[in-house]
Amino acid sequence: MMTRKKRRLWLLVTCGIGVGSAVALTLAAFSSSLTYFLAPAQVVAKAPAPGDLFRLGGIVQAGSVSKTVTEGQLLTTFRVTDGRASIPVTYTGVLPDLFREGQGVVTIGSMAPGDHDFIAQEVLAKHGADYMPKAVEQALRESGKWNPKFGPPPPASTWNDMTVKKANG
Amino acid sequence: MIPELGHFALALAIAIAGAQAVIGIFGPTMNDNRALRAAPALAIGLFGTVGASFLCLVYAGIVSDFTVRNVAEYSDSTTPLLYRITGTWGNHDGSILLWCLILTLCGATVATFGRNLPSSLRARVLGIHGLVCGGFLLFTLTVSDPFARIWPPPMHGAGVNPILQDPGLAFHPPVLYTGYVGFSVAFAFAVAALIEGRVDAAWGRWVRPWTLVSWCFLTSGIALGSWWSYYTLGWGGYWFWDPVENVALLPWLTGTALLHSAIIVEKREAMKIWAVLLAIATFSLSLCGTFLVRSGLLNSVHAFAASPDQGYFILALLGLTIGGSLILFTFRAPVLSASGVFAPISREGALILNNIFLCVIAVVVFMGTLYPPFLDLLFGVQLSVGAPFFNQTAIPLTAPLILAMAVGPLLPWKRATLLPALQKLWIAAVVALIVAVIVDLRWNAVAALGLGGGAWVVLGAIIDIAERVRLFRIPLNHSISRLFTMPRAAIGAAMGHFGFGVTVLGIAGMTLAAHVVTVLQPGQSVQLGGYQWTLNDIHDAPGPNYAKRVADVTISSDGHKIMVLHPSRRFFTAQKITTSDAAIRTNGINDIYATFAGEQDGGGEFRFNEHPMAPEIWLGGLIMALGGGISLSDRRFRIGAPARKAAKRPASSIAAE
């Protein structure tokens, strides 16, 4: 029969292997799969390199959504705004049912090389119709366009005007 | 009037829970017989009052009493009856009440079926349980009151969220909550054991069925939720590594570990401290699962909207429960002496390996889930850890589990050698290898590893049973009679492993899924997965509280019509929300999946998917839960008699410590 010491050693070695591999895997995965959240104004300020994956979040600008069909593929373009800047987004595929103009959206993707288009790989669906993604909410608060303290977000149709005003003045 | 009664019952429940906690915890030290007898009665009374309160809420939902905010905001008179009932737990406040109801049900069950427990242990367990109940009932009553009234009442309710108007989601919360909450019993037993300073085989025998019950429910709950998201969200995903899914997975991982380590406690009286710690951890993670979602800390698509004071209350409650029990653990754990000696390669060794890897996976998932909110809290940096992270970490860590899973059950207790076990498994190894090679050549390496691993586990489980009934070595009818007389726990365990293998097969098969997104005019068609998908027609159809547009899609192969799918889009008039209802046809090993995503110039936007092995993902979950159920019907859980024999285990096994 094994001595207690030896048994402990075995246990420690197994634990060590388990924990060690977990740490190694975690660090490797962290370095390659963390994505930052950026609001449109931050995208303009930081200008992420083309191909860098990040999350773009904001409000879908009213009147900006257009769908085209090329070779049976559905291409949607829309603009995401935080009231200070707006970024054109292109997305190929089916949009979630709760995607609509004037509502919060989070998209995952990267900037296209050359121009200022954001190529979305994924557009996230939100369970609630009036749900405001937390990161979007914060971005809007920072841009001074909406503070949750003063009630619900302004109606969807006004989000367009805000950007227009900004563009004019 | 009825809602006020419900409110009153809730307040009464808190008083009862408080009494149960005080009497239960201090009763045994006072050594007062009346106190020991009072605790079970109070636990049953507590269930009664919370049950009455819950029924009042359901009643308000059924009669569409829009003066109750909860009903007005989440229900409507046009909502079908089933969803007016389930709508009571389809929102934050109501779901917490349901959570409390199940919590008290667990307490009442311990009180009813715990007659053969030592009365002081039973009183303490119920006392701890009452304390937990009291805390969460207080939370319900003070900051998340489901009976709050509004005045003037609206003419119409806002209606249930259309995505939630679905049988899958109607039953997902109760099942999942039962899973979460069932671990409260294991937790109460662990804390009571710490107070008593004694953990023995009888403790293991009591904790295990409870862990098993909650594990079955949790498994089914997770499977149900995953299935729901598969068929409602419309793009055929079944698991997104979303924070809310992760927090449900965490107690499942540690609960599975607890399930296995409780076997060691029961059979070998070893690993007691570890089992106690796991019981505490599992319930703590269950609490996190329920309440982090509601604290607003996690940024998730599922997150309930919650006010800040609810968040603080929740965090305080979590801190008290988890912190308190862990502090008690640090002081009292050394009292629980370990016993039982075994070699590294043995059944115990395999179970420990299982525990280590399950816990390591849990830690990794925990870090991935909580790293972003903490970074946001501390440095204000917003980033997210997505599916790639979890795929890169959790999947490699599952590989050793899968490898060991087939071997473990074939090893004898105490001391073993690997060779005989591996010899028994040679068929499984050969088949798994052949599957992997074929899949690798035909498709890709990831699917090959997954399908090979799944086959290995499935065959391993079958061989485990075949070995036990000595299949082909004794006449077949003897084998069959052995199958019916062998311990059901062994059958259940093999089924659990078998089910896990089936799920692995399904997940691996899904990596070979194919899809196409397209716009079709009536008459046009598209090719996918060897089929021709043709849009015939788009037409209107009525629904109970929605109007729908239905597309008829014919699927044919070589000109033969195979089936017609009817994916539809539903427009909910009260909420002004459109949802798409996917059409899925399955033959058991392959899903054909069509989503009608929108209309355009007389045509429709479609997403067609072909999902090989998709049904196996949930089938595996079902088999796992059933295996748990069979294991639960084992003789020794039904009859309390062997408890005494086990308690008087010969001193030889303790001597080595």
Outline the structure in words:
The complex is a heterodimer of chains A (169) and B (657). Chain A has 169 residues and is an alpha+beta fold. Chain A is 34% helix and 28% strand. A 5-stranded mixed β-barrel of chain A has the order 2-4-5-7-6. The longest helix of chain A is centred in the first third of the chain and has 30 residues, at 4-33. The radius of gyration of chain A is 22 Å and the shape is elongated. Chain B is of the alpha+beta class and 657 residues long. Chain B folds into 4 domains: 1-165, no CATH class; 202-406, no CATH class; 425-511 and 616-625, no CATH class; 514-612. Chain B is globular and about 80 Å long. Residues 639-657 of chain B have low confidence and may be disordered.
The SSE string of chain A, one letter per element, is: HEHEEEEEEHH
Strand content of chain B: 5-15%
Q: Please write the CATH class name of chain A.
A: Mainly Beta
User: Architecture of chain A in CATH?
Assistant: Beta Barrel
Number of strands of chain B: 11
What can be said about this structure in brief?
With 169 residues, chain A is an alpha+beta fold. Chain A has helices at 4-33, 40-46, 134-142, 158-168, and strands spanning 34-38, 54-60, 66-70, 73-81, 86-92, 104-111, 118-123.
Considering the chains and any ligands shown, give keywords for the structure.
A: alpha+beta; OB fold (Dihydrolipoamide Acetyltransferase, E2P); 28% strand; elongated; disordered C terminus; B: 657 residues; 4-stranded antiparallel sheet; 64% helix
